[in-house]
Each structure stands twice: as C-alpha cells, then as structure tokens.
Amino acid sequence: MARNVEFDEKLAVSKAMDVFWKKGYNGASTRDLTEAMGISNSSFYNTLGDKHQLFIKAIKYYTESRMDSATKLLQPIKSPLKAIEKFVNSSVYAITNEPNSCLTIKTTFEVAIGDEAVQRIIKADNEFTYNLLIGLISKAIELKEIRVSDDAEMLTDYIINQFTGWHESFIIHKDKTRIRKMAEFLIRQISQ
Questions:
Q1: What is the CATH number of the domain that holds 82?
Q2: Which residues lie below 8 Å from residue 145, measured CB to CB, with a gap of 6+?
Q3: Total domain count for the chain?
Q4: Does 76 map to a domain?
Q5: Whose C-alpha in 5, 63, 161, 163 is 20 to 30 A from the C-alpha of 169?
Q6: What digits encode the pLDDT tens for the residues 36-70?
Q7: Is 14 exposed, middle or buried (0-12, 13-18, 19+ CB in 10 A)?
Q8: Are 152 and 138 in contact (CB under 8 A)?
C-alpha cells in the first residue's frame, strides 16, 4: 500500500523558490528541487505536479510575499512622500542585499517572453507596484508634497523603470554606494 507523504507545501514551495532564484528556471533540475524540498520524485509529481507547475507556485509565492511586505511596510506612514521614500529605500536595500537579484526581473528575461502563465503573474506584480506608487504619487501631488510634476502616471513609470536599471547596475558593478546615490538623487528630484 502506498504511503501518503505529508509535508508543508508552503515551505516546500519556498525552498523551491530559493532554487529557482539561484539557478533560474532552466538551470534548476528536478533533482535540485526535490533535494531542496526534502521530498522524493514521486512525492514531487504526485503533490506538486511538474517543474513548470512548481515554478508557477514559486513565482506566485514570491510576488505575493513582496506585495504583502510592501503593504505592511507602507500602511502606517501618513505622508505619501515619506511612504514613497520608504518604498524606494526598501527597494534599494533589496537590490543591494538579495544575493540573487530580483526573481521577477530574472524570470521576465528568462521565461516570461514565451510563457503566458508566468507573464500573468509578473504583470499582476507590476500592476500592484504601479497602483501602489501611483496612489501615493497622486496623493503627494494633491498635498503639494511633490511639485516637480503633476503627471502621476509619468512619475510612476519613471520610478519603476529606475528599479530595473538599478538591478542591472548592481548585477554588473556590485556597488551599493552607486545604487544609494541614484536613489537619493531620485528622491531629491521628486521632492522638489
């Protein structure tokens, strides 16, 4: 009689996420994943599906965790400009301290081009960030905390695109000071 394997699926997905984060989708083997999760191949296929299904769960787990963290981080801050600054600074911290860069950005270039399921998850993550920032920027413009422009959409796109550039710069140069200086400059620009 077959034995039912009991394990914490959320923990297993988190461990798989770390493997995908380090090795990428194409670089992660089923063996890498099962070893990290501490399960057998049969448990893997019986409970989690295949590598692609696990990857979808891992990317979802990653993006949902980031959304939850951002919401909790910014919720108590009353000033929209201070919340934007906190978001920028926490992004800088993540860029310069996550050993494997951003999983979403890595996935965008490795897998998302030809994978509609992954595209949907990454798009939802991007839309969350966009909506979070545009809400803060619109409120900051309304309260005259931001005077540099009254175009909330353009400022939101501008800030989000800075993050992508900072990721690339840090991957290439590994220079935390460079990223911090760019973030400080960005904050000064929008605070005028």
A1: 1.10.357.10
A2: 79, 80, 81, 191
A3: 1
A4: yes
A5: 63
A6: 999 989 889 888 899 999 999 999 999 999 999 99
A7: middle
A8: yes
